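Work Package 3 (structural annotation) set out to generate three-dimensional models for the target panel prioritized at the project kickoff. During this period the team completed the workflow that converts sequence records into C-alpha coordinates, so that structures can be stored uniformly alongside our sequence database. As a representative example, we reproduce one entry of 529 residues exactly as it appears in the project archive.
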Amino acid sequence: MDERIRQAVFPVAVYEASANVENAELFLQPCDLQIGLSEQHLITVHGKGYVVLDFGKELHGAVRILTLGADGEQANVHIRTGESVSEAYAGIGQKNAGNFHSLRDIHTKLLIYSDMEFLQTGFRYVRIDFEEEKTVVLKAVLATEIRRDLHAVGSFECDDARVNEIFAVAQRTLELNMQNYIWDGIKRDCLVWIGDMHPETTGICCLFGSDGTVERSLDYITAHTPLPQWMNGIPSYTCWWLIILHDYYMQNGNKEYLEQNRAYLEGAVRLMNDCVTETGEITVEALFDWPSHNSADEKIGIYAIWVLAGKYAFTLFEELALDTEVCVRMMEKLARNRNQTVANYKQCEAMLVYAGVKQPLESYAFLTNGGAKGFSTFMSYYLLSAIARTDAACAVSLMKEYYGAMLDLGATTFWEDFHLDWVNGSAPITRLPEEGEKDVHGDFGDHCYVGFRHSLCHGWSCGPVPFLIKVVGGIEILAPGCKKMAVKPVAAGFKRYKIVYPTPFGNIEIELKDGKITKKIPSGIELVD
Protein backbone atom coordinates (compact mmCIF):
# COMPACT_ATOMS: atom_id res chain seq x y z
CA MET A 1 0.00 0.00 0.00
CA ASP A 2 1.27 3.46 -0.91
CA GLU A 3 0.86 5.76 2.12
CA ARG A 4 2.17 8.84 0.39
CA ILE A 5 0.31 12.04 -0.39
CA ARG A 6 0.64 14.29 -3.45
CA GLN A 7 0.75 18.02 -2.89
CA ALA A 8 0.95 20.86 -5.41
CA VAL A 9 3.92 23.19 -4.77
CA PHE A 10 4.38 26.39 -6.78
CA PRO A 11 7.83 27.91 -7.36
CA VAL A 12 8.90 30.77 -5.10
CA ALA A 13 11.28 32.49 -7.54
CA VAL A 14 12.27 32.68 -11.17
CA TYR A 15 16.03 32.22 -11.03
CA GLU A 16 16.43 33.16 -14.68
CA ALA A 17 14.30 33.45 -17.82
CA SER A 18 15.19 34.34 -21.38
CA ALA A 19 13.89 37.66 -22.71
CA ASN A 20 11.27 35.99 -24.88
CA VAL A 21 9.39 34.51 -21.90
CA GLU A 22 6.40 36.83 -21.42
CA ASN A 23 4.71 37.16 -18.00
CA ALA A 24 7.29 34.95 -16.26
CA GLU A 25 6.20 36.42 -12.92
CA LEU A 26 2.95 34.44 -13.25
CA PHE A 27 4.88 31.22 -12.61
CA LEU A 28 4.93 32.30 -8.96
CA GLN A 29 1.21 32.97 -8.62
CA PRO A 30 -0.91 29.98 -7.57
CA CYS A 31 -3.86 29.31 -9.85
CA ASP A 32 -6.58 26.73 -10.31
CA LEU A 33 -5.02 23.63 -11.80
CA GLN A 34 -7.36 23.04 -14.71
CA ILE A 35 -6.90 23.99 -18.35
CA GLY A 36 -9.83 25.90 -19.87
CA LEU A 37 -10.63 27.70 -23.09
CA SER A 38 -10.83 31.19 -21.61
CA GLU A 39 -7.65 31.34 -19.52
CA GLN A 40 -6.24 34.70 -18.42
CA HIS A 41 -3.35 33.37 -16.29
CA LEU A 42 -0.90 32.69 -19.12
CA ILE A 43 2.84 32.70 -19.73
CA THR A 44 3.92 32.86 -23.37
CA VAL A 45 7.26 31.73 -24.79
CA HIS A 46 8.01 33.25 -28.19
CA GLY A 47 10.42 30.87 -29.91
CA LYS A 48 13.48 29.19 -28.44
CA GLY A 49 14.02 30.19 -24.83
CA TYR A 50 14.26 28.91 -21.30
CA VAL A 51 13.16 29.42 -17.71
CA VAL A 52 14.74 28.28 -14.45
CA LEU A 53 12.41 28.00 -11.45
CA ASP A 54 13.30 27.79 -7.76
CA PHE A 55 10.97 25.90 -5.41
CA GLY A 56 12.67 27.29 -2.32
CA LYS A 57 13.76 23.99 -0.80
CA GLU A 58 14.52 20.47 -1.88
CA LEU A 59 11.52 18.20 -2.38
CA HIS A 60 10.73 14.76 -3.76
CA GLY A 61 8.29 14.51 -6.60
CA ALA A 62 7.47 15.32 -10.22
CA VAL A 63 7.40 18.36 -12.49
CA ARG A 64 3.86 19.25 -13.56
CA ILE A 65 3.22 21.44 -16.61
CA LEU A 66 -0.16 22.82 -17.73
CA THR A 67 0.00 23.79 -21.42
CA LEU A 68 -2.75 25.71 -23.20
CA GLY A 69 -1.32 26.11 -26.68
CA ALA A 70 1.58 25.50 -29.02
CA ASP A 71 2.15 26.02 -32.73
CA GLY A 72 1.34 22.77 -34.46
CA GLU A 73 -0.36 21.49 -31.27
CA GLN A 74 2.90 20.32 -29.69
CA ALA A 75 6.38 21.60 -28.82
CA ASN A 76 9.69 19.92 -28.01
CA VAL A 77 11.17 20.80 -24.63
CA HIS A 78 14.20 19.82 -22.56
CA ILE A 79 13.39 19.48 -18.83
CA ARG A 80 16.13 19.28 -16.23
CA THR A 81 15.92 19.26 -12.46
CA GLY A 82 18.68 20.10 -10.03
CA GLU A 83 19.39 19.83 -6.34
CA SER A 84 21.56 22.88 -7.05
CA VAL A 85 21.29 25.65 -9.63
CA SER A 86 24.39 24.37 -11.40
CA GLU A 87 23.00 20.84 -11.68
CA ALA A 88 19.84 22.22 -13.33
CA TYR A 89 22.06 23.92 -15.94
CA ALA A 90 24.32 20.91 -16.57
CA GLY A 91 23.91 18.65 -19.58
CA ILE A 92 24.19 14.88 -19.38
CA GLY A 93 27.81 13.97 -18.71
CA GLN A 94 28.86 17.43 -17.59
CA LYS A 95 30.56 17.02 -14.21
CA ASN A 96 28.97 13.57 -13.99
CA ALA A 97 25.40 14.86 -14.41
CA GLY A 98 23.05 12.08 -15.40
CA ASN A 99 19.92 10.06 -14.77
CA PHE A 100 21.02 7.88 -11.87
CA HIS A 101 18.22 5.76 -10.39
CA SER A 102 15.64 8.41 -11.31
CA LEU A 103 15.01 10.49 -14.43
CA ARG A 104 15.94 14.15 -13.94
CA ASP A 105 16.94 15.15 -17.48
CA ILE A 106 14.65 14.41 -20.44
CA HIS A 107 13.66 15.65 -23.88
CA THR A 108 9.90 15.41 -24.34
CA LYS A 109 6.87 17.13 -25.86
CA LEU A 110 4.28 19.52 -24.48
CA LEU A 111 0.80 19.07 -25.97
CA ILE A 112 -2.00 21.62 -26.19
CA TYR A 113 -4.75 21.45 -23.54
CA SER A 114 -2.54 19.18 -21.44
CA ASP A 115 -1.82 18.72 -17.76
CA MET A 116 1.15 16.36 -17.56
CA GLU A 117 3.71 15.24 -15.00
CA PHE A 118 7.31 14.47 -15.85
CA LEU A 119 10.15 12.85 -13.89
CA GLN A 120 10.13 11.73 -10.27
CA THR A 121 13.22 12.63 -8.31
CA GLY A 122 14.70 14.92 -5.68
CA PHE A 123 15.13 18.55 -6.71
CA ARG A 124 14.84 22.21 -5.84
CA TYR A 125 15.35 23.79 -9.28
CA VAL A 126 13.72 23.10 -12.64
CA ARG A 127 15.03 24.32 -16.00
CA ILE A 128 12.82 24.09 -19.10
CA ASP A 129 14.32 24.79 -22.52
CA PHE A 130 11.92 25.39 -25.40
CA GLU A 131 13.74 23.84 -28.34
CA GLU A 132 11.80 25.10 -31.36
CA GLU A 133 10.90 28.40 -32.98
CA LYS A 134 7.31 28.09 -31.83
CA THR A 135 4.96 30.04 -29.63
CA VAL A 136 4.08 28.03 -26.52
CA VAL A 137 1.46 29.16 -24.01
CA LEU A 138 1.62 27.79 -20.46
CA LYS A 139 -0.72 28.17 -17.53
CA ALA A 140 1.57 26.84 -14.82
CA VAL A 141 4.72 24.91 -14.00
CA LEU A 142 4.73 23.44 -10.52
CA ALA A 143 5.97 20.49 -8.52
CA THR A 144 3.88 17.58 -7.35
CA GLU A 145 5.52 16.75 -4.04
CA ILE A 146 5.29 13.06 -3.13
CA ARG A 147 5.79 12.34 0.54
CA ARG A 148 4.20 10.80 3.59
CA ASP A 149 2.02 12.94 5.84
CA LEU A 150 4.24 12.68 8.89
CA HIS A 151 3.66 14.31 12.27
CA ALA A 152 6.61 14.00 14.61
CA VAL A 153 6.05 13.60 18.34
CA GLY A 154 9.64 13.99 19.48
CA SER A 155 11.28 17.39 19.24
CA PHE A 156 14.17 19.64 20.22
CA GLU A 157 13.95 23.41 20.59
CA CYS A 158 16.49 25.71 22.22
CA ASP A 159 17.73 29.30 22.58
CA ASP A 160 20.22 28.91 19.69
CA ALA A 161 18.57 29.73 16.35
CA ARG A 162 21.39 28.06 14.39
CA VAL A 163 20.91 24.79 16.25
CA ASN A 164 17.15 24.95 15.73
CA GLU A 165 17.70 25.39 12.00
CA ILE A 166 20.13 22.47 11.86
CA PHE A 167 17.62 20.28 13.70
CA ALA A 168 14.77 21.29 11.38
CA VAL A 169 16.79 20.62 8.21
CA ALA A 170 18.03 17.28 9.56
CA GLN A 171 14.45 16.32 10.38
CA ARG A 172 13.27 17.30 6.90
CA THR A 173 16.11 15.30 5.36
CA LEU A 174 15.05 12.23 7.31
CA GLU A 175 11.33 12.62 6.60
CA LEU A 176 11.85 13.04 2.85
CA ASN A 177 13.62 9.68 2.84
CA MET A 178 10.83 8.00 4.80
CA GLN A 179 8.86 7.05 1.72
CA ASN A 180 7.14 3.62 1.66
CA TYR A 181 10.51 2.23 2.73
CA ILE A 182 13.53 3.99 4.21
CA TRP A 183 15.70 5.29 1.38
CA ASP A 184 19.23 6.58 1.23
CA GLY A 185 18.36 9.46 -1.08
CA ILE A 186 15.46 10.88 -3.05
CA LYS A 187 17.44 11.57 -6.24
CA ARG A 188 19.87 8.64 -6.16
CA ASP A 189 20.00 5.47 -4.08
CA CYS A 190 16.23 5.19 -3.59
CA LEU A 191 17.05 1.78 -2.15
CA VAL A 192 16.92 -0.09 1.15
CA TRP A 193 20.63 0.06 1.98
CA ILE A 194 20.37 -1.58 5.38
CA GLY A 195 23.94 -0.71 6.33
CA ASP A 196 23.19 3.00 5.92
CA MET A 197 19.93 3.11 7.87
CA HIS A 198 20.97 3.20 11.52
CA PRO A 199 21.19 7.01 11.81
CA GLU A 200 17.74 7.15 10.19
CA THR A 201 16.12 4.49 12.37
CA THR A 202 17.64 6.11 15.46
CA GLY A 203 16.20 9.45 14.35
CA ILE A 204 12.82 7.80 13.71
CA CYS A 205 12.78 6.41 17.25
CA CYS A 206 13.52 9.90 18.58
CA LEU A 207 10.84 11.64 16.49
CA PHE A 208 8.09 9.03 16.14
CA GLY A 209 8.86 6.20 18.55
CA SER A 210 7.91 3.72 15.87
CA ASP A 211 7.09 3.85 12.18
CA GLY A 212 6.02 1.24 9.65
CA THR A 213 8.92 2.03 7.34
CA VAL A 214 11.36 0.48 9.81
CA GLU A 215 9.77 -2.96 9.97
CA ARG A 216 8.96 -2.89 6.25
CA SER A 217 12.60 -2.14 5.44
CA LEU A 218 13.92 -4.79 7.83
CA ASP A 219 11.46 -7.36 6.44
CA TYR A 220 12.36 -6.43 2.88
CA ILE A 221 16.06 -6.99 3.41
CA THR A 222 15.67 -10.36 5.17
CA ALA A 223 13.23 -11.55 2.49
CA HIS A 224 15.69 -10.60 -0.25
CA THR A 225 18.82 -11.91 1.52
CA PRO A 226 18.56 -15.62 2.25
CA LEU A 227 21.36 -16.85 4.47
CA PRO A 228 24.28 -17.32 4.09
CA GLN A 229 24.26 -14.19 1.89
CA TRP A 230 25.31 -10.84 3.32
CA MET A 231 22.74 -8.07 3.22
CA ASN A 232 23.25 -5.79 0.20
CA GLY A 233 26.23 -8.03 -0.53
CA ILE A 234 28.31 -6.37 2.23
CA PRO A 235 29.19 -8.23 5.47
CA SER A 236 29.10 -5.18 7.74
CA TYR A 237 25.56 -4.45 6.56
CA THR A 238 24.30 -7.64 8.18
CA CYS A 239 25.87 -6.36 11.42
CA TRP A 240 23.99 -3.09 10.99
CA TRP A 241 20.73 -5.00 10.48
CA LEU A 242 21.27 -6.65 13.84
CA ILE A 243 22.08 -3.30 15.49
CA ILE A 244 18.92 -1.71 14.05
CA LEU A 245 16.79 -4.69 15.13
CA HIS A 246 18.18 -4.41 18.67
CA ASP A 247 17.63 -0.67 18.98
CA TYR A 248 14.12 -0.83 17.54
CA TYR A 249 13.21 -3.66 19.90
CA MET A 250 14.60 -1.78 22.90
CA GLN A 251 12.53 1.27 21.89
CA ASN A 252 9.23 -0.50 21.29
CA GLY A 253 9.46 -3.89 23.00
CA ASN A 254 7.62 -5.77 20.25
CA LYS A 255 8.49 -9.34 21.27
CA GLU A 256 6.30 -10.82 18.55
CA TYR A 257 8.29 -9.01 15.87
CA LEU A 258 11.57 -10.11 17.44
CA GLU A 259 10.32 -13.72 17.42
CA GLN A 260 9.62 -13.43 13.71
CA ASN A 261 13.33 -12.74 13.20
CA ARG A 262 14.55 -15.54 15.50
CA ALA A 263 15.83 -17.95 12.84
CA TYR A 264 17.45 -15.24 10.73
CA LEU A 265 19.09 -13.62 13.76
CA GLU A 266 20.59 -16.90 14.94
CA GLY A 267 21.89 -17.74 11.47
CA ALA A 268 23.32 -14.26 10.92
CA VAL A 269 25.27 -14.33 14.20
CA ARG A 270 26.74 -17.73 13.37
CA LEU A 271 27.78 -16.33 9.99
CA MET A 272 29.37 -13.31 11.68
CA ASN A 273 31.22 -15.51 14.17
CA ASP A 274 32.68 -17.62 11.38
CA CYS A 275 34.38 -14.45 10.04
CA VAL A 276 36.27 -13.72 13.29
CA THR A 277 39.65 -15.39 13.76
CA GLU A 278 40.97 -16.65 17.09
CA THR A 279 42.99 -13.43 17.33
CA GLY A 280 39.91 -11.25 16.80
CA GLU A 281 40.49 -10.20 13.20
CA ILE A 282 37.66 -9.88 10.67
CA THR A 283 38.39 -12.06 7.64
CA VAL A 284 35.90 -10.59 5.14
CA GLU A 285 36.15 -7.41 3.12
CA ALA A 286 33.48 -4.94 4.21
CA LEU A 287 32.53 -1.28 4.07
CA PHE A 288 32.66 1.18 6.96
CA ASP A 289 31.89 4.46 5.23
CA TRP A 290 32.87 5.89 1.86
CA PRO A 291 35.31 8.61 3.02
CA SER A 292 37.42 6.00 4.87
CA HIS A 293 36.99 3.28 2.26
CA ASN A 294 40.11 1.30 1.33
CA SER A 295 42.11 2.86 4.18
CA ALA A 296 43.83 0.94 6.97
CA ASP A 297 41.50 2.69 9.42
CA GLU A 298 38.45 1.19 7.71
CA LYS A 299 39.28 -2.24 9.13
CA ILE A 300 39.24 -0.73 12.63
CA GLY A 301 35.83 0.82 12.04
CA ILE A 302 34.49 -2.52 10.79
CA TYR A 303 35.93 -4.20 13.89
CA ALA A 304 34.02 -1.73 16.08
CA ILE A 305 30.76 -2.46 14.22
CA TRP A 306 31.33 -6.19 14.79
CA VAL A 307 31.87 -5.59 18.52
CA LEU A 308 28.68 -3.52 18.81
CA ALA A 309 26.68 -6.12 16.88
CA GLY A 310 28.11 -8.86 19.09
CA LYS A 311 27.02 -7.09 22.27
CA TYR A 312 23.54 -6.52 20.93
CA ALA A 313 23.31 -10.10 19.65
CA PHE A 314 23.87 -11.35 23.18
CA THR A 315 20.98 -9.19 24.45
CA LEU A 316 18.62 -10.40 21.74
CA PHE A 317 19.60 -14.05 22.19
CA GLU A 318 18.80 -13.73 25.90
CA GLU A 319 15.43 -12.16 25.08
CA LEU A 320 14.64 -15.11 22.80
CA ALA A 321 16.03 -17.71 25.23
CA LEU A 322 18.56 -18.80 22.61
CA ASP A 323 21.88 -20.39 23.52
CA THR A 324 24.27 -17.42 23.82
CA GLU A 325 27.40 -19.54 23.39
CA VAL A 326 28.03 -18.30 19.85
CA CYS A 327 27.75 -14.67 21.00
CA VAL A 328 30.11 -15.24 23.92
CA ARG A 329 32.56 -17.06 21.68
CA MET A 330 32.59 -14.25 19.12
CA MET A 331 33.05 -11.56 21.79
CA GLU A 332 35.90 -13.49 23.42
CA LYS A 333 37.74 -13.60 20.11
CA LEU A 334 37.08 -9.93 19.37
CA ALA A 335 38.36 -8.98 22.84
CA ARG A 336 41.81 -10.25 21.88
CA ASN A 337 42.11 -7.50 19.30
CA ARG A 338 41.05 -4.45 21.32
CA ASN A 339 44.31 -2.52 20.94
CA GLN A 340 43.35 -0.60 17.83
CA THR A 341 45.06 2.63 16.74
CA VAL A 342 43.30 4.87 14.24
CA ALA A 343 45.68 6.95 12.14
CA ASN A 344 43.51 9.40 10.20
CA TYR A 345 39.76 8.93 10.13
CA LYS A 346 37.81 10.37 13.03
CA GLN A 347 34.70 8.34 12.30
CA CYS A 348 36.59 5.07 12.85
CA GLU A 349 37.83 6.33 16.22
CA ALA A 350 34.32 7.49 17.15
CA MET A 351 32.89 4.05 16.44
CA LEU A 352 35.41 2.51 18.84
CA VAL A 353 34.01 4.81 21.53
CA TYR A 354 30.39 4.18 20.53
CA ALA A 355 30.96 0.42 20.69
CA GLY A 356 32.63 0.67 24.10
CA VAL A 357 36.05 -0.45 22.90
CA LYS A 358 37.71 2.83 23.96
CA GLN A 359 36.99 5.32 26.69
CA PRO A 360 35.65 8.70 25.51
CA LEU A 361 38.39 10.78 27.14
CA GLU A 362 41.02 8.60 25.50
CA SER A 363 39.72 9.60 22.05
CA TYR A 364 38.63 13.17 22.73
CA ALA A 365 41.79 14.98 21.57
CA PHE A 366 41.93 13.01 18.32
CA LEU A 367 38.24 13.55 17.56
CA THR A 368 38.33 17.31 18.19
CA ASN A 369 41.68 18.06 16.55
CA GLY A 370 41.08 20.58 13.78
CA GLY A 371 37.48 21.11 14.84
CA ALA A 372 34.91 19.53 12.52
CA LYS A 373 37.44 18.87 9.77
CA GLY A 374 37.36 15.20 8.89
CA PHE A 375 33.72 14.70 9.89
CA SER A 376 31.47 12.40 7.87
CA THR A 377 27.75 12.99 7.30
CA PHE A 378 26.90 9.29 7.67
CA MET A 379 28.98 9.03 10.83
CA SER A 380 27.99 12.38 12.36
CA TYR A 381 25.77 10.83 15.04
CA TYR A 382 28.58 8.59 16.30
CA LEU A 383 31.16 11.38 16.10
CA LEU A 384 29.01 13.82 18.05
CA SER A 385 28.01 11.13 20.56
CA ALA A 386 31.60 10.14 21.21
CA ILE A 387 32.73 13.74 21.71
CA ALA A 388 29.72 14.60 23.91
CA ARG A 389 30.64 11.87 26.38
CA THR A 390 33.57 14.10 27.32
CA ASP A 391 32.24 17.58 26.48
CA ALA A 392 28.70 17.95 25.14
CA ALA A 393 29.09 21.70 24.59
CA CYS A 394 32.07 21.03 22.34
CA ALA A 395 30.04 18.48 20.37
CA VAL A 396 27.27 21.05 19.83
CA SER A 397 29.83 23.61 18.68
CA LEU A 398 31.35 21.18 16.17
CA MET A 399 27.89 20.23 14.90
CA LYS A 400 27.24 23.92 14.24
CA GLU A 401 30.59 24.27 12.47
CA TYR A 402 30.00 21.25 10.23
CA TYR A 403 26.28 21.37 9.48
CA GLY A 404 26.20 25.16 9.61
CA ALA A 405 28.67 25.26 6.72
CA MET A 406 26.19 23.31 4.58
CA LEU A 407 23.45 25.77 5.53
CA ASP A 408 25.70 28.66 4.54
CA LEU A 409 26.14 27.00 1.15
CA GLY A 410 22.37 26.99 0.68
CA ALA A 411 21.43 23.52 1.92
CA THR A 412 17.76 22.91 2.68
CA THR A 413 18.49 19.21 3.21
CA PHE A 414 21.75 17.60 4.29
CA TRP A 415 24.14 15.88 1.96
CA GLU A 416 25.53 12.45 1.20
CA ASP A 417 29.01 13.67 2.05
CA PHE A 418 30.60 16.95 2.99
CA HIS A 419 34.06 18.19 3.92
CA LEU A 420 34.90 21.60 5.34
CA ASP A 421 37.74 21.77 2.82
CA TRP A 422 35.10 22.26 0.13
CA VAL A 423 33.95 25.61 1.56
CA ASN A 424 36.70 28.07 0.71
CA GLY A 425 36.28 29.53 -2.76
CA SER A 426 33.03 27.70 -3.49
CA ALA A 427 29.77 29.26 -4.63
CA PRO A 428 26.59 28.30 -2.78
CA ILE A 429 24.23 25.84 -4.44
CA THR A 430 21.71 28.69 -4.88
CA ARG A 431 23.56 30.33 -7.80
CA LEU A 432 25.94 29.59 -10.62
CA PRO A 433 29.63 29.93 -9.74
CA GLU A 434 31.37 33.07 -10.86
CA GLU A 435 34.77 33.21 -12.50
CA GLY A 436 37.36 31.67 -10.19
CA GLU A 437 34.82 30.04 -7.87
CA LYS A 438 34.39 26.33 -7.29
CA ASP A 439 31.07 24.57 -7.77
CA VAL A 440 30.48 22.87 -4.42
CA HIS A 441 28.09 20.40 -6.04
CA GLY A 442 29.77 19.68 -9.36
CA ASP A 443 33.47 19.94 -8.47
CA PHE A 444 33.67 17.62 -5.47
CA GLY A 445 32.63 14.14 -4.37
CA ASP A 446 34.37 10.78 -4.49
CA HIS A 447 33.80 7.06 -4.98
CA CYS A 448 30.21 6.58 -6.21
CA TYR A 449 29.15 10.21 -5.72
CA VAL A 450 31.41 12.27 -7.96
CA GLY A 451 30.12 15.63 -9.14
CA PHE A 452 26.41 16.03 -9.79
CA ARG A 453 25.80 12.38 -9.01
CA HIS A 454 26.32 13.48 -5.41
CA SER A 455 23.02 13.38 -3.49
CA LEU A 456 22.17 16.57 -1.58
CA CYS A 457 19.38 14.88 0.37
CA HIS A 458 20.70 11.72 2.01
CA GLY A 459 18.84 10.28 4.98
CA TRP A 460 21.97 9.12 6.78
CA SER A 461 23.00 12.75 7.36
CA CYS A 462 20.15 13.25 9.89
CA GLY A 463 22.57 12.70 12.81
CA PRO A 464 21.73 16.00 14.59
CA VAL A 465 18.20 14.69 15.29
CA PRO A 466 19.18 11.76 17.54
CA PHE A 467 22.20 13.65 18.86
CA LEU A 468 20.18 16.61 20.13
CA ILE A 469 17.24 14.57 21.43
CA LYS A 470 18.89 11.44 22.74
CA VAL A 471 22.47 12.42 23.60
CA VAL A 472 21.84 15.93 24.96
CA GLY A 473 18.75 14.49 26.66
CA GLY A 474 20.91 11.80 28.25
CA ILE A 475 18.37 9.16 27.26
CA GLU A 476 19.39 5.51 27.57
CA ILE A 477 17.01 2.56 27.24
CA LEU A 478 17.87 -0.17 29.73
CA ALA A 479 15.00 -2.62 29.19
CA PRO A 480 12.90 -3.47 26.10
CA GLY A 481 9.98 -1.18 25.39
CA CYS A 482 11.49 1.66 27.50
CA LYS A 483 10.33 -0.10 30.68
CA LYS A 484 13.59 0.87 32.37
CA MET A 485 15.52 3.97 31.38
CA ALA A 486 18.23 6.37 32.45
CA VAL A 487 17.53 10.04 31.70
CA LYS A 488 20.56 12.18 32.49
CA PRO A 489 20.40 15.37 30.41
CA VAL A 490 23.30 17.77 30.07
CA ALA A 491 23.20 21.54 29.52
CA ALA A 492 25.60 21.21 26.55
CA GLY A 493 26.21 24.96 26.49
CA PHE A 494 22.56 25.94 26.06
CA LYS A 495 20.74 28.45 28.24
CA ARG A 496 17.36 26.99 27.42
CA TYR A 497 15.98 23.96 25.67
CA LYS A 498 13.00 21.63 25.61
CA ILE A 499 13.29 18.01 24.52
CA VAL A 500 10.41 15.62 23.89
CA TYR A 501 11.13 11.90 23.50
CA PRO A 502 8.37 9.40 22.64
CA THR A 503 8.04 6.07 24.49
CA PRO A 504 5.30 3.39 24.52
CA PHE A 505 4.20 4.87 27.88
CA GLY A 506 3.95 8.45 26.63
CA ASN A 507 6.40 11.27 26.12
CA ILE A 508 9.43 12.08 28.22
CA GLU A 509 9.78 15.85 28.55
CA ILE A 510 13.05 17.50 29.51
CA GLU A 511 13.44 21.23 30.01
CA LEU A 512 16.42 23.43 30.73
CA LYS A 513 15.43 26.85 32.02
CA ASP A 514 17.10 29.36 34.32
CA GLY A 515 20.01 27.01 34.91
CA LYS A 516 17.77 24.19 36.08
CA ILE A 517 16.87 20.95 34.30
CA THR A 518 13.48 19.38 34.96
CA LYS A 519 12.17 16.02 33.73
CA LYS A 520 8.67 14.61 33.28
CA ILE A 521 8.70 10.83 33.08
CA PRO A 522 5.53 8.90 32.14
CA SER A 523 4.10 6.40 34.58
CA GLY A 524 5.24 2.86 33.85
CA ILE A 525 8.88 3.72 33.20
CA GLU A 526 11.35 2.65 35.89
CA LEU A 527 13.90 5.45 36.11
CA VAL A 528 17.44 4.42 37.02
CA ASP A 529 19.83 7.02 38.43
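Residues 279 and 336 are 6 Å apart (CA to CA).
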